[in-house]
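Hi everyone, sorry if this is the wrong subforum. Our group has a chain we'd like a structural model of before ordering constructs, and none of us has done structure prediction before. Sequence below.
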Amino acid sequence: MEAPSHVYYFQVGTGVWHGHFTFRVTSWNRLRHSGIGPRNRLLVVAMQLSQWITGRSRLESTLRAKPSRGAFGEADNTVRLSRFGLTQYLLRERYVLDPDGTRVTVHAEERFGPLAGFLTRSFTYPAEIHEGGLSSTYHMPLLGDRWTATYHVAPERDRLSGQLRCPWAAATEEVRRTVAGPDRRADR
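Answer:
Right subforum, don't worry. Here is the predicted structure as tokens:
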């Protein structure tokens, strides 16, 4: 039986995905008392205003499998959120798969806004891929707080739905694979 993380990243995930991202503050009171700091609070307000004014963001993701890298394989992912062609958020991640077949260490670099070198940071966080390789949970430090992101792959393996939550906000991701990887199991 194949490891869940190999199924998730090397078979299902490899390719180009397009869809939409939504964000909303669920409790302004909790946000006010969250201690996330002025910079993150400003980013949260900007994201909420952007969603209110222009609607959901476009999400583009490209995942490349690297099964021969590291002890149990790796994958690289680039996620871009945009509206009217302007980048709102850019995330580059490297998934390092654990030999246990389920745990993953994610090394991430993020940027808010369209300007390179501005509002950027690097961070690392854990994830786990569930039995069967068709769902996952990520424990992400975003916007100054702890977020839990859960993802579920559709039975046809061509769509992915994500729910991201923290004590004061929620976000969703809905994507469909538009281009499969050239060889979904090969290093590229």
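For your construct planning: The CA atoms of residues 44 and 143 lie 7 Å apart. The longest helix spans residues 38-54.
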